[in-house]
Specification:
mainly alpha; globular; 182 residues
Length: 182
Amino acid sequence: MRALLILLLCVGPALAQPPADPVHTEIDQLLTALPMAPNEETAARIEGRVTMLWLKSGGPAVRLLLSHGVRNLGRDETDEALQDFNAALALEPDLPEALDRRAQARYQAGDVTGAVRDLQAAVQREPRHFGAWRTLSGIAEGQQHYASALAAWKKLLEVDPKTADAQKHLKELTRLAEGEES
């Protein structure tokens, strides 16, 4: 009887925990593997799979809204895309991919400050969000804030060192940042 009680005390809490979400488990495994990708092609495949899973990581309504938002953004229907991403975030405010996508829509609409704020929130919630780091770097570079672009690119390289043209772009941003007056 005592052995059964000990077993229940040890196993009971584990049984009470909800099972791990397979989508989030796969995302975590892929993001853990990404820094060890042997080449750009493998890294790109991992990035693509993670991005697809991020788009599927919310509930059914959120997935539908993200899908519509991505489609609308691709059609340059920025206002509609923003509505979709805002609605997705109203349902799941901590979803990094929804923040990243809304940032893209905001930037496309000319709201640089809102885009940067969303991207910062995305990387705060998921520090390995390579897309958000890439976009932050691109926005800073577009604004000619080369030191900030370089800092964001370096964060991207911590997560995804084999991202496309990683070292070439790092070299260019370093050159631009060192030439920038502080």
